[in-house]
Amino acid sequence: ERRSKDQTACGHTTAFVPSSGRIYSFGLGGNGQLGTGTTSNRKSPFTVKGNWLPYSTQCLIPADSEQYYCVKRIFSGGDQSFAHYFYPQNMVPPDDFRYPDLLKQIWTVNETFIQRLLTFPSGRLPVEIANEIDGTFSSAGCLNGSFLALSNDDHYKTSVRFSGVDMNAARLLFHKLIQPDHAHISQQVAASLEKNLIPKLSSSLPDVEALRLYLTLPECPLMSDANNFTTLAIPFGTAILKLEKAPLKVLENWWSVLEPPLFLKIVELYKDVVVHLLKLYKIGIPPSERRIFTNFLHTAFRVLEILHRVNERGQVIQYDRFYIHEIQDLIDIRNDYVNWVQQQVFGMLTDMPVTICTYPFVFDAQAKTTLLQTDAVMQMQMAVDQAHRQNLSSLFLPVFESVNPCLILMVRRDNIVGDAVEVLRKTKNVDYKKPLKVIFVGEEAVDVGGVRKEFFLLIMRELLDPKYGMFRYYEESRLIWFSDKTFEDSDLFHLIGVVCGLAIYNFTIVDLHFPLALYKKLLNKKPSLDDLKELMPDVGRGMQQLLDYPEDDIEEAFCLNFTITVENFGTTEIKELVPNGADIPVVKHNRQDFVDAYVDYIFNKSVASLFSAFHAGFHKVCGGKVLQLFQPSELQSMVIGNTNYDWKELEKNTEYKGEYWADHPTIKIFWEVFHQLPLEKKKQFLLFLTGSDRIPILGMKCLKLVIQPTGGGEGYLPVAHTCFNLLDLPKYTDKETLKSKLIQAIDHYEGFSLV
Questions:
Q1: Residues in the active site (predicted)?
Q2: What is the pLDDT of residues 693-737, one digit of tens each?
Q3: Do residues 488 and 463 make contact, with C-beta atoms less than 8 angstroms apart?
Q4: Which of 132, 153, 329, 454 makes a 20 to 30 Å CA pair with 675?
């Protein structure tokens, strides 16, 4: 392939220089393959023995011409070397690799090839053209030699890290070739791929270059055609799964450095295959075909699993791009979870060909929430059964009714927080895996959600009060973290963990201003520098500057060692991040270790006992396997909701009672006023009406408001019934009056005080 007149043949190495007519060799020579007359190895080129004569039209032919050789071409491989030569009287010019013979090149998919194919009208292709298409798309060598990165001869740099493929060229050329107007071409390509190429793909490959087609073939539109899923996409996925460990690792490396749209295309391909197969399953699969159907589904999921593993290492695309949103419409996800648990615990077989919970990365937030609800029901039933068996109810009544399908918390309205804290402290052995109902002593109101929401709102506000000193507030980020200076015992941290778990278990949003690091730790994931930047932006930026500093004089420029300075009741205290850290300066080669140790101290070491108590309390309620299906950000949204506000969606989902309807004059000016409010006022309105200024993890579509008219005239304020997300709205006729009264109501809201 060299662009020079010289020839080089590789294995051991031989080289021919036309100007002198000589052959040189070097490398391994144990079998005499170097032609030097010995069996020694050579590290540098040495002349191969022989009477070599250069080609020249002016050359005088020696008298004993049969003793001289004019080389035309050399070959080398294994333990052999040989040359194709002529005697001087018959000499011809040696092969010049600067001008390749097109007749001797392998077929490849290129612009010229495609344009030639497209000149033939629709219909039957000439035999020689059909044979060329078949030969090209039946040959792994032809496809591996196509779409090469020609800029700076990049394809010569192919390695375990670099494919040498121009993926943009592959996409453009495949789309030029496969067109609806040339169905005859598409049919021939599909037949060649199906019958000849894919079935013959080997699990063991001779070189990394033989993996190129595994990158390029998914760009072919035929692969994404649902009609070809069982004949092309699934067999191709099977070939991927059959690759030996070493070539699969190379393919994963190549996938990891793809541009996000290219990587996403492969993910979308096998997501589409899964959806296609599940639709067939929903319609009905004949018993005779279930085994092969199961294999197909496993293949698609396992390819996605490998792609997800690659993405976990470097996040080529966002994790939610693996979600299959149609899952809940195609299978009974609750039954699937039960089957999965039974398989995990008892090894039971199910009727479902594949237990989808085995591949949790495909579940979106809505599916995971359904699984959490399913797990809650299972855990509740197990708890009730256990309580009946052990007859422990007398230990918890009258405060907790533990054999009831619900966990009943009885508190006094005038001491809601104090009673709740005392009750939860005294009942650490209660199984909290039940729906929570809050009852105010002396009142007959039934908790249908609003009282429970109010309970969580107020108890968290009390427990996070600075007077306890349990958490440190960071002004710059407006977030809190565990304080290692607290005098409170671990029981109170255990209690907060229980309350957070109860909030998730009862699908109630709570106001909890922790960084994402808390949810990472709850899911056994390590906090990183990004988490430090979120909690302590100034410190995080400083750490990043340290890592990015280009010079070698880090010790002099930053004057750091492996310690951290902390405040301790008005004084400063130096803590060592590692043993003897005060004696270890931060230099270029250990700066990453310093940053890692700093992050570890803030999020782990300094608060280990406090977080351990919180963790134990949280997992006492949310200890099921399903919790591990959540990403940290999704778990955070389960606890505190999210801020993906869609105010038009809120208006669209609102229901009206009594005289009100969507086009009632009062309702029209209400929404005009509401949409003109600044974001903070809109959030205050949500808090006023629902008990939280955030929305459920599933979005505004799951937040349904109800507005009804109320008597009393325009002098009265709107009234919120948090239990029902119900707003009593007087029949205002003036826009300014409505705005004034609405703002007055939400500005003075505190608990249920206005109701």
A1: 723
A2: 888 877 788 788 999 999 878 889 999 887 678 999 999 999 999
A3: no
A4: 454
Contacts of 480 (CB under 8 A, 6+ apart): 464, 471, 472, 473, 474, 513, 514
Of the residues 357, 500, 622, 723, only one is catalytic, namely 723
Question: Backbone dihedral region of 7: left (phi > 0), alpha (psi from -120 to 50 degrees) or beta?
Answer: beta
Tell me the CA distances in angstroms from 90 to 19, 70, 225, 546, one per residue in order. 18, 9, 58, 72
Strand-strand pairing, 22-27 and 13-17: antiparallel
Q: Which amino acid is it at 246?
A: A
**333: closest CA among 364, 300, 294, 296?**
364
Q: What gap in Å lies between CA 78 and CA 31, rounded to an integer?
A: 10
Please answer whether residues 682 and 674 qualify as being in contact, where contact means their C-beta atoms are separated by less than 8 angstroms.
yes
pTM score of the predicted model: 0.73
Residue with tokens 């309205």: 413
Q: Cα separation of 358 and 102, whole Å?
A: 52
Angle at CA of residue 133, ends 127 and 138, nearest 5°: 120
**Pair 53, 73: CB distance under 8 Å:** no
Cα–Cα distance measured from residue 587 to residue 569, given in angstroms and rounded to the nearest whole number: 32
Q: Are 87 and 75 in contact (CB under 8 A)?
A: no
Residues 6+ apart with CB under 8 A from 734: 669, 714
Q: State the DSSP code for 420.
A: H
Quote the CA–CA distance of 395 and 6 in Å, as a whole number: 93
Q: How many residues does the chain have?
A: 755
* 723 noted as active-site residue: yes
Pairing mode of beta strands 42-47, 70-77: unpaired
Query: DSSP H helical segments within 193-332, as ranges?
Result: 212-216, 234-242, 245-256, 260-283, 290-314, 327-330
Nearest Cα to Cα of residue 238 among 285, 275, 203: 203
* Helices within 315-415 (DSSP H only): 327-330, 333-346, 365-390
pLDDT per residue as tens digits for the range 342-394: 777 766 665 666 788 889 899 998 888 888 878 877 766 666 666 565 544 43
Q: For residue range 1-38, what is the model confidence (pLDDT) as tens digits? A: 334 456 655 557 888 888 888 888 888 888 888 888 88
Angle between helix 333-346 and helix 365-390 axes, rounded to 10 deg:
60
* Distance, CA of 409 to CA of 406 (rounded, Å): 9
> Which position has the token pair 């508190």?
411
Q: Which residues of 43-60 are buried (b: 16+ CB within 10 A; e: fewer)?
A: eebbebebebbebeeeee
Query: From CA 256, how far away is CA 309, in angstroms rounded?
Result: 10
Question: What is the token pair recorded at 531?
Answer: 């988490």
